[in-house]
Task: structure prediction
Amino acid sequence: MLLIACPYCGPRPELEFSHGGEAHIARPEAPADVGADDWGAYLYLRANARGLHAERWRHTHGCARFFNALRDTTTDKFLATYECGQPRPHLGEPS
Amino acid sequence: MSTRYRSASGGRIDRGRPVRFTFDGRPYIGCAGDTLASALIANGVWLTGRSFKYHRPRGVLSAGSDEPNALVAVRRDEARCTPNLRATQVELYDGLAAVSQNRYPSLAFDLGVANNLMARFIPAGFYYKTFMWPAKAWDRLYEPAIRRAAGLGDAPTAADPDHYANRFAHCEVLVIGAGPAGLAAAMAAAKGGERVILVDEQVEVGGSLLDEPADGGTTIDEISARDWISQSLARLAAYPRVTVITRATAFGYFAHNMIGVIERLTDHLAAPPAGAPRERLWQIRARDVVLATGAIERPLVFPDNDRPGVVLAGAARTYLNRYGALPGKRVVVATGCDSAYAAALDLHHAGVKIAAIADVRRVPAGPLIEAARRAGLPIRFGCMITGTTGRLRVTGARFLVITEDGRAGLGETVACDAVLMSGGYTPSVHLFSQSRGKLAWDPDLQTYLPGVSAENERSAGACAGRFDLAGVLRDGEAAGSASIGVEPSRTFSVHAMAANPRGVLGALTHDRGPRAKAFVDWQNDVTTNDLKLAVREGFQSIEHVKRYTTTGMATDQGKTSNLNALAVVASALGRPIPQVGLTTFRMPYTPVTFGVLAGLARGDLFEPVRTTPIHGWAVAHGAVFEDVGQWKRARYFPRGGEDMDAAVRRECLAVRAAAGIFDATTLGKIEVVGPDAAEFMNRMYINAWTKLGVGQCRYGVLCRDDGFVMDDGVVGRIAADRFHVTTTTGGAARVLSMMEDYLQTEWPDLDVWLTSTTEQWAVIAVQGPKAREILAGLVDGVDLSREALPHMSLTHGVVAGVPARLFRVSFTGELGFEINVPADRGAQVWEAVWAAGQAHGLTAYGTETMHVLRAEKGFIIVGQETDGTATPDDVGLGWAIGKTKRDFVGKRSLARPAMSDPARKQLVGLATVDPARILEEGAQIVAEPGGTTPLTVIGHVTSAYFSANWDRSIALAMVSGGRARMGETLYSPSSTGDVPVQVVSPVFYDQAGEGVHG
Amino acid sequence: MQRFSAFQLFKQGLAGQAGWKPQWRSPEPKASYDAVIIGGGGHGLGAAYYLAKQHGLRNIAVVEKGWLGGGNTGRNTTIIRSNYLFGESAALYDHAVKLWEGLSRELNYNVMFSQRGVLTLAHNVHDVQVLGRHIHANRANGVDNEWLTPEEAKAFCPPLNIAANIRYPVLGGALQRRGGTARHDAVAWGYARAADALGVDILENCEVIGIRRGVGGAVEAVETTRGLIQTRKIGVSAAGHTSVVLDLAGVRLPLESYPLQALVSEPVKPVFPCVVMSNTIHAYISQSDKGELVIGAGTDIYTSYTQRGGLHISQHTLEAICELFPAFRRLKMLRNWGGIVDLTPDRSPIVGKTPVRGLYVNCGWGTGGFKATPGAAHTFAWTIAKDEPHPINAPFTLERFREGRLIDEAAAAAVAH
Result:
């Protein structure tokens, strides 16, 4: 069971959270203007990164807020958690 | 019944407290403090089990959790029967009844031994090469025979009446293993004043120090090893935040420093207290972990090394010094390391004849060897043990002397009643490896040691490859100190006999020919020949060899065998061990009871049960319930022996003729509040909300962004900035979660709050032509007239003295009200309505009647008519879409060409040509009768009932291009032939929709 | 190929088992192949076998970054069934079941396919409806599936608790008698041995680190840790690592990789004669020929490549197992492991061409890939050989996500695979 640092509540066990998939996939502002390829990509295509992965979590059984996390999917170690709307931090990436 | 093999004195057993027990029905006597294994050894019993494949007779090999052979079932009663327990860990209690396993008819005479005679024809993996013909014979003939022969103990047949506990714990430092390293680490960590937990799988702390003789020469800080254990425990007890847990095995190392520990609580008691949990699962989250898990002794790999009476030397020393049990009267010691000499010396001092010490090394030296020599023990260097004699117990050991120039000398057999062996010790890196730390090969010690850590963890003592007692203690002190961020400060003064930590790996040389069986994995009967065969057949990865031969896959998971297997394979491949690799260490370290992992989640606690405030009334009125998600919902209210069909028929007629009362509390309810509430609703739901006036209701449909229907429900506008949203019973949490997702992450600019109010409101539906009359006398300050409160509107008022939100809505097609009152007043209002309704024929109805009534009206149920692949238009809800809205969740996806394909399935009604024939839900629909499989299916039945009001069967179905098929005759294949059906409107009753406006 | 038979075993037994040859060679990579399969699990080895056997391509390599069958082939609970809801799925999985039925003899390797029946339990009215739809749909598709009452279910699986007063009572079940289990490792080894005999080079410890594309973007070569290999056709069967491999060619996929755990009990004498699944309480269980109860859990909630999940996932599964089979509470978990499963949004696989010429993919099997092994491999080989879909895998294209023509088994049935 992972230990997840909610940016609002601090470290809490995974049981309190739900996972929200890949982060930073913004819903298009005007979906009607989006072509079939881009709409399909928005709905379905995912990076599925092996390594650093920006993802969304929700502290469902706590403060109920969504937030983002940067996690290494090869170790499950969290490098950072941050509020929604903030850009992905540059951590642990080869410079 | 004599305990002939009990030493004269010593050990940590209580000789004054005899304990009676039985093994395979024969009575024996042991002592308090014995394990089953030590008591059997003290009674001279070595035959304790049969091996998995060849059914070879086997005896105790070890003294701990690494035991592969001595597996027994312990039976307290019919239900409390536990198979596959290691006799080396079963604590003796008065009346203990143990039985051997995997033998027929008896342990001493086992017919399964025929496999042993056939062994040359059934090597590793033989089953992959045969049993292929004839085609059906595998399932019917070969496999059942193999299955009967395989398996070990018998699974219990009755439900386990015991219960199990679960505890979460947090600490700054968790120390695993309470041997000298762990005790030193815990004492060091305790100084920080923080929470320290020390766990050990044994009955008492001390680890390897418990194996020291009471009056032995080993001292720490000038006191005996045993006194040092007591002193250490006393020190730890002085720290209030230190917890010591024994009989507690750390079985799993999970992500982010969470350790799973099983504490055994009552299995050692003759009469466990009633209600006491049998075991407890600890899930401990630690800031720092110290692994002090020790090392496991390796057997020597030589022919016939599996005969009962062949035992690990260290284990023999444990049985002597800790349990006062003698492995034999005349003992041969075969070794490739120094530590076996300690066993030989202790046995010698206990009066056991040491017939020979055969040391495979040519010129070993050291204080232990010197001591043995001084004691006059017959030592042979460069001497291989090449076999044993005997049948159910060893009677002799065969030797081969390799001379200095490498030539083999003549073989010789020495009579004995036990063979002690040791190939050295393998550090227990299981938990370190589970933590995903990287192991590193140590060429000096010829073993894998902890390398790079993955978690905040330190290994100390023998598990880190340190075997000298002074070094082990220093290691513990250092690890414990580092865990609290201080420099080590304590020093230890140790007097102990030094032993060279190096041993031997792999198979010993022998002259017994190619068919001799030298076992590597005892329980699974894997020999050196099997491993070599796998290599010969091209299996080069150690993982392949493991799977092909099953080495290391028995209940001991290769604790004693893995490194030897690796060495044999490396030698066969002609590669150094580190190039062959290592099999993965997986949790659990030792097998873990299913029940303790399931814990308290059984019966009603398996999954919480949700009930409504009206549940008690429903129970009292004989309701039959169904599970919907976690909810218990009244399905129907049978009267006087009615079955479901009769009850539902009566309920259906009553609602349309007079009125019915229905508990709709389980519907999900979400309060959507804020200046932007209408805009939020516009973006979420397919409907338009801007023009919905305060006090009005609208049927809302929610799609996922892929355009498929996800949920539905009536939404009332309570105020300009407040919506009362209802959802399906099962969808409440999903819908709220989806709303929160969009609100928080896509549209944080919207000023809206979402609150689940499902549990806050009790919802009482009163439906039917008499509904208004029934409520008229109960409401206060509410005008129920059709003008003041028309269909799809809502108002506030007082019902039966309770403030309520009163909705004029209908899921039946009749005049209907849904009374929302605070949940804690729900029962009171229900009773009041019920009482008022008696004069009007008010009937309580359940979900089944609700389903029929709504189907008569062609109303869908999300999850029944829809299945996650239906668009709003597919189920006839295209009208609900707010056509002028720029966007809503799902809109863009609905514009994809596939979503308007004319062949899509659409909701229709089906009327069977035979009105009495009720279709089966899920039945398929075809256009032409009499087809052969695979049929060209054009649809399926989603709902099918007998409609008492229409006096015929009705059905809803999803049919390809269905709306263009009105009037067509289609067919539903069934076990009794194709059932003809006519495609009709899904609205069977009151097509004009007059009823709701009554 | 050295034939396997009882006679050979006997003969070799007399000769001390010394005459057995390697089941497959360990060749050095050639500079070029007509086709390269990435992924040495059952799907990849099977595709190579069928390419060689049925399409005449003999100059083929299978590259595997670790050891054969070390991925999901060796990490699943070996359940085989074809009772899927949609016609497209049923056709694909039943194609596999039919191949399973002859696979041991086809490969001359006993894969121990045991048709002991797969029973899916219903615990509430919704389950009854969903399973009813499955039964009807399967029968229309010629796939066997039948309804059992609770008493019939108990007779078929004696340890089952059918008491009416338990939290999730058994209201009945859907039984596919042709379903069952097979020996997972043997599937990989059997295909490897048979493919090798047809000339296929099996390259273990050979990780793909690049995919080179030439004129018009078509594939030209794979870069591996054992050197550069020229090829015009690449078939990817890399399960949980498919996204990583396809990324080398610049192709993004609708895939996410999740940990999936399974566990076995200590071996006990025969006590469980069939396979039982429950989607509502998330558990599936059978007993291996060795005697171990083989139990599958659900996925963890987050994506991961660690091949490790949380204890609470296994706990939840054992809660369900102990509830259905209360006599098993005293049995012990012997071994627990994790795999990486690649899930698509509609929980159906992707088998077919990619936007890159010469690059083919067979992925997205989620938790259900083992049962499809022969069928997926067989149709995938066709697609690679002919550069066009096989009629059975044609609906399972990558394009369906763009077009919205999903084959949504999960949403349709609320069935976890």
Q: What stands out?
A: Chain C touches chain B through 113 residues (CB under 8 Å). The longest strand of chain C covers residues 332-343.
